[in-house]
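TA notes, week 10

Several of you asked for a full example with nothing omitted. So below is the full record: structure tokens for the whole chain, then the designed sequence directly under it. When grading your own attempts, check the secondary structure regions first.
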């Protein structure tokens, strides 16, 4: 009996070990499979596997510094939208079930549907980032370790303020990788005009043309800016600023009034001016169908900024350091009408605005920015304008 108990005990012990090893193996396989699946869902190709993402935010992301930059370090979707630590990562994957449901329901399966929901989608992401104090941003960026002396002056000023005020990264960098939603008060402005609205806009433009030109091309002497092709929300915002005197402009005083330009008229003329496409070069001549009058009309529409004297390469570096963060890497401004397009604008006009910023007669983003503009020497400004004068050249926009 004693030997039997020993035998049974040994067999039981061996079976327990085998069972433990078996379940440990199953656990390892399950754990490894689960983590492998989670890692696979963090890959860029997985994130853009549906056309809703590939045809919208992915295209915007490809134009950002997170996709391509001087250091060659690329941040993919998961680096910004998925926590690194395991617990929060699992919670994020659970929350993604709502996104899968939206995908199955087709709530954003067209560009129009996506743009309509963009404000809510963006705000949801921003709230999440604020709640975590931009945790995913801080995995790569840390205010405490930034070398402000090597940053652009505007960026350094903003980072100093952020550290003092306890602001989160997302408070300032909402448009870092994707287009910003159009501001609610400007969202109602038409982007396309009916035939009646276009005819009415042309009547309004008869007044504008006295200074800004028949096609909104501006004046070569830099007195009046080009308006054609500019962001309609930005144009509407500036007219509202003229009306409220937030931006004082003497020539606009008689016109920027509620009587001369009520809100609806502002929307119509802004959309009209934005719709004017001024080519940067004449099309090739069609010998068989050549018409001298048509050719003359085409030439009136061509606007290509003359090369400004200065070092273009140095200007490109200066622009990237000081201006690209807000005005875009290609100088075509920010979506949502918050930051103007600089490409295609007359160099003399831009120089006049910089001088106004320097003197404090016109406020840039912040009143303290006047000191920053004063710190830039004339050579740097000339180089900047030299590069900007090439920003609208054929084939330069990416």
């Amino acid at each position: 009996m004693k030997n039997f108990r020993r035998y049974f005990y040994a067999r039981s012990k061996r079976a327990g070990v085998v069972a433990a090893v078996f379940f440990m193996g199953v656990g390892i396989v399950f754990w490894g499979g689960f983590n492998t699946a989670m890692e696979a869902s963090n890959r860029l190709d997985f994130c853009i596997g549906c056309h809703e993402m590939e045809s919208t935010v992915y295209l915007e992301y490809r134009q950002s510094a997170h996709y391509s930059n001087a250091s060659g370090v690329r941040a993919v979707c998961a680096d910004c939208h998925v926590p690194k630590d395991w617990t929060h990562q699992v919670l994020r994957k659970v929350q993604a079930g709502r996104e899968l449901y939206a995908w199955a329901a087709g709530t954003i399966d067209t560009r129009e549907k996506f743009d309509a929901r963009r404000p809510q989608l963006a705000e949801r992401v921003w709230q999440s980032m604020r709640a975590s104090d931009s945790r995913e941003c801080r995995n790569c960026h840390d205010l405490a370790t930034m070398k402000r002396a090597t940053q652009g002056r505007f960026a350094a000023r903003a980072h100093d303020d952020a550290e003092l005020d306890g602001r989160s990264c997302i408070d300032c960098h909402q448009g870092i990788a994707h287009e910003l939603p159009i501001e609610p008060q400007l969202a109602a402005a038409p982007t396309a005009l009916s035939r009646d609205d276009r005819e009415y806009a042309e009547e309004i433009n008869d007044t504008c043309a006295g200074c800004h030109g028949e096609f909104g091309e501006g004046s070569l002497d830099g007195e009046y800016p080009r308006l054609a092709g500019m962001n309609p929300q930005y144009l509407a915002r500036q007219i509202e600023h003229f009306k409220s005197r937030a931006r004082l402009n003497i020539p606009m005083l008689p016109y920027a009034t509620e009587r001369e330009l009520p809100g609806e008229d502002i929307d119509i003329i802004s959309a009209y001016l934005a719709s004017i496409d001024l080519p940067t070069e004449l099309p090739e001549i069609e010998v068989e169908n050549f018409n001298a009058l048509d050719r003359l009309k085409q030439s009136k529409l061509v606007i290509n900024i003359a090369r400004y004297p200065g070092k273009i390469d140095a200007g490109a570096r200066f622009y990237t350091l000081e201006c690209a963060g807000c005005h875009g890497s290609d100088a075509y401004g920010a979506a949502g009408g918050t930051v103007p397009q600089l490409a295609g604008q007359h160099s003399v006009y831009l120089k006049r605005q910089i001088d106004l910023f320097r003197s404090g007669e016109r406020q840039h983003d912040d009143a303290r920015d006047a000191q920053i503009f004063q710190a830039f020497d004339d050579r740097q400004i000339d180089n900047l304008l030299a590069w900007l004068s090439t920003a609208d050249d054929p084939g330069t926009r990416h």
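The CA atoms of residues 315 and 384 lie 4 Å apart. Use that as a sanity check on your answer.
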